[in-house]
Fold this sequence. Notes:
Blueprint: H1 2-22, H2 47-51, E1 58-61, E2 64-67, E3 72-80, E4 89-97, E5 100-108, E6 116-123, E7 132-144, E8 150-163
Parallel strand pairs: 2-8
Antiparallel strand pairs: 1-3, 2-3, 3-6, 4-5, 4-7, 7-8
Amino acid sequence: MRVRLVLAASALLTAAVAPLAHAGGADGHRAGDHHADGHHATDRLTASQVRDGLFTNGLFVDAYGTVAADSTVTLSGTYRCLDDSTGPVFVSSTLVQGDRSTGIGGTRAVCDGHLHTWTNSSVVKEPAYSPGAARVEATLMQLSGTGLPLPRFLATEKTDVELR
């Protein structure tokens, strides 16, 4: 039974990652494809790319986040998901700076096949994050099943960011 589960999970992962590889790499990005506004070039896909199946569920993190005077951390990016009929989908994010890691909010996703922006914020004190280099780990996750809902990971992104 475990072997079947592993094989099924492997097949789903392969099916989810393969279209992103066509968009420019296993993570959907090409080196140096950043725009001045912090978005990746692949954030702006053409209708024909979407229609031809070159992009399915995907998640991108902006190149920078903010730390406000009151210690509110804000992270953002772009996502696309196709189907939320089996359960709600969320964009979650974790900020890592030095030896510190904190979950920064969560956003309910709209899964209509279109690109959407996401923004997660959280007040983080004791000690607060500071401007400079950091890493964001973002996840597009669907909760599904009856009874206790189980997470199904649709896309993940781990990227270096600059906190301002």
